[in-house]
Amino acid sequence: MRNGNGAGDSFGTYLNRQQGWQTLRASLAADGRRLVPYSFRHTYSLRGHRLGIDPGAMAHSMGHSLEVHLRSYPWASASNTAAAFARVAPMVDPT
Length: 95
Known about the structure:
Radius of gyration: 18 Å
Largest sheet: none
Order of helices and strands: HHHHHH
Strand content: under 5%
């Protein structure tokens, strides 16, 4: 991993040589979907969001700002605000 390329490039090269990765990429491509090494980060963010981890905490855990997180991962944006409030509404005392 010290040939001048970044760790991400080296990881991509490694994955592209693996039969399982090649098979999965081909299967997804047949459905019009794209699989890249960066898919791991996207999946991490999406799973955190689905588990209810707030975008600020996800951004911090991924090493970028909240602004970058919201711009890069649309499922963590304001479009999901209503669902988040609906989820906690039963816990709020109306009095």
